[in-house]
From TrEMBL:
Membrane topology: Single-pass type I membrane protein
Alphabetized UniProt keyword annotations: Disulfide bond, Immunoglobulin domain, Membrane, Repeat, Signal, Transmembrane, Transmembrane helix
Lineage: Eukaryota, Metazoa, Chordata, Craniata, Vertebrata
Region Disordered, annotated ranges: 267-296
Superkingdom, taxonomy of origin: Eukaryota
InterPro entries hit by this protein: Ig-like_dom, Ig-like_dom_sf, Ig-like_fold, Ig_sub, Ig_sub2, Ig_V-set, VSIG1
Segments passing through the bilayer: 231-254
GO BP field: epithelial cell morphogenesis; maintenance of gastrointestinal epithelium
Record-given protein name: V-set and immunoglobulin domain-containing protein 1
N-terminal signal peptide: 1-18
Short name of any one Pfam family annotated for the protein: V-set
Main location as per UniProt: membrane
Amino acid sequence: MRSTNIFLLCNMLGIVHSITVTVPERSVNVTERGTVFLACTFTTTAPTKNLIVQWFFTENLGTGQSKQILFYEGGTTVIIPAFQGRLKMLSNPAMTKNATISIDNMQQNDSGMFSCEVNNMPDIEGRNEMTVVVNVLVKPSAPYCSHHGEVATGHQVILTCHSKEGNPPPTYTWTHVKDGQIKGIQDIKKGTMAIQNISQVQFGEYQCVASNGVGTASCTIDLSEEINDGVIAGAIIGALLFCGAIGLLVWVITHQIKKQHKMKVTKSLKDSEMQPMKASRTTHQVKEDGDENPAM
Ligand SMILES: *[C@@H]1O[C@H](CO)[C@@H](O)[C@H](O)[C@H]1NC(C)=O
Ligand SMILES: *[C@@H]1O[C@H](CO)[C@@H](O)[C@H](O)[C@H]1NC(C)=O
Ligand SMILES: *[C@@H]1O[C@H](CO)[C@@H](O)[C@H](O)[C@H]1NC(C)=O
Ligand SMILES: *[C@@H]1O[C@H](CO)[C@@H](O)[C@H](O)[C@H]1NC(C)=O
């Protein structure tokens, strides 16, 4: 209300005070640990005796809360602790009409919107605030390579690769080290590669490269034929030993059974040698009797 009154008064007096804040770059990229320059200049028709410059920071590209990080008035600059020692006002804005700042050692969580706001009473009209979007670029950290599924002919094997850090988010490419070729179905965003029905020619070393335009990092993993052969050899040796043991057991048992059987057979032979003789004699007698009977 009062501002409007002053504005009307100025208009009536024929004096139009106007402020214009300009930022040459609306979006800035800076690498992690690097220094960012946030340029901001202004024009004002009034003397800069009552100049106030403020910088605000909003985390995560506007989703966070806006907080004041710098306040300048009458030659005095106040900077909040989180930015102390690394944020600098590069000139005296009251003299240069230049409110450019620099921030050293930028971290990933310094990504966000930085706003430059200038007030210079009695300038109250015009554009007094402008925003710069800062993106802190981080090269991918060394990725972690792993695989899931049995490395054996005919099985499905899934390779996975992931970097903990990286901005923008890295993409991942899996290649067979031997011939540099892609041997499965890749998801470059997730970092996976699925090898269906793996065959001998697909065994060997694989490399994953994580890249995001800022840098690259890689890891390798061995889908080893050797380990697989070892397992097979072990299994064969194990099987042979098992068979050997079974064979021995079977031999021992059969030997034992044969021995007992022989003894039984001998014993029963002895028995049968005697009994049939008796029997046959009896039979014979009967037969003889019988024979004799019909003859009678
Ligand atoms: C900043 O980096 C992003 C991602 O790498 C890129 O797309 C964009 O063009 C860059 N912007 C500037 C101003 O360099
Ligand atoms: C504002 O100040 C910065 C840092 O001192 C400088 O690089 C830039 O050229 C200045 N801008 C103008 C328009 O003078
Ligand atoms: C940003 O991360 C750094 C460590 O990398 C930490 O010291 C600082 O407090 C964080 N800042 C905010 C605003 O979370
Ligand atoms: C797996 O691969 C072998 C040899 O290439 C082929 O004979 C077989 O049909 C395949 N099995 C499946 C389920 O695709």
